[in-house]
Amino acid sequence: MEPISTTYKKVWYVTGTSTGIGLSLVKKLLASGKQVVAVTRTPEKVDAEIPLEQKADVLIVKADICKEASVIESIEKGIAHFGKIDVVVNNAGFGIVGAVEELSEEEIRKAFDVNFFAAFSICKNIIPHFKQQKSGFIFNVSSICGWGSLSEFSAYTATKHALNALTFALEQELAPLGIKVVLLSPSGFKTPFVDNNMQHAKVQLSEYNSKERTKWADDIVNNGRGDPDKLNDIVIQVAEMENPPKNVFFGTHAIQYVKSEWKIQREEMDKNVPITISTDYPDAPKIDWE
């Protein structure tokens, strides 16, 4: 299929665009002269937010990113319409509150489907296009939860740890091909994520604090100190960098939380050094680990 228009403008493919960080990014991109493939389950919500004079620069695509056929179709529609895709932002997310014992296999699989496998599918299927044009940029939106562990957020933190690992491996694989990959790790930003995209495990046991955790998450997000518009200003700047960082933390709380986590892990590792090195063969070459 011939593209409707081949554009000199950068074309961004963004998921999770009906609210929050995703919708803010779409608006920022259009205001800065970019073109956008806005992927969403609710196209009418996105359409209502776009000024009439900017509608020519946005293609709103209804897609189920948990199904590879739908992902492929959305990418093909974007390329057919604009002639190319330059930047991908895997922003769509799903949260669930529940301890491991409370969670069903179905619930944790849904979290992985949205937060991990959808991003995997989009990355996998955009790479051939990026290889063909010898350029491209992928942003995967993680969370500070991908750098530590939070009780009663077992599923969510697991998905974000997995996404982190995927992203860093992908960056190494694609760097020789001229394709850039960056992880984004925000802390609490004022968005409707908890209200719209956070669910509870159907089973709730008295031994755990899932209800209190939900109130905590609601306070962190709905009253968050982070400004989504400022975050997206940085994302747009990073996309223009010749040598971008591999990961960007967003929000003061992100620094506070991650430094605390790393300190705890470093202290634990140092404490257990004798145990750790005792497992080597006696004649194994010595390694300077300090």
UniProtKB/TrEMBL annotation:
Top-level lineage group: Eukaryota
Gene3D superfamilies listed in its UniProt record: NAD(P)-binding Rossmann-like Domain
InterPro entries for this protein: NAD(P)-bd_dom_sf (IPR036291), SDR_fam (IPR002347), SDR_oxidoreductase (IPR051911)
Entry similarity comment: Belongs to the short-chain dehydrogenases/reductases (SDR) family.
This protein's name: Short-chain dehydrogenase/reductase SDR
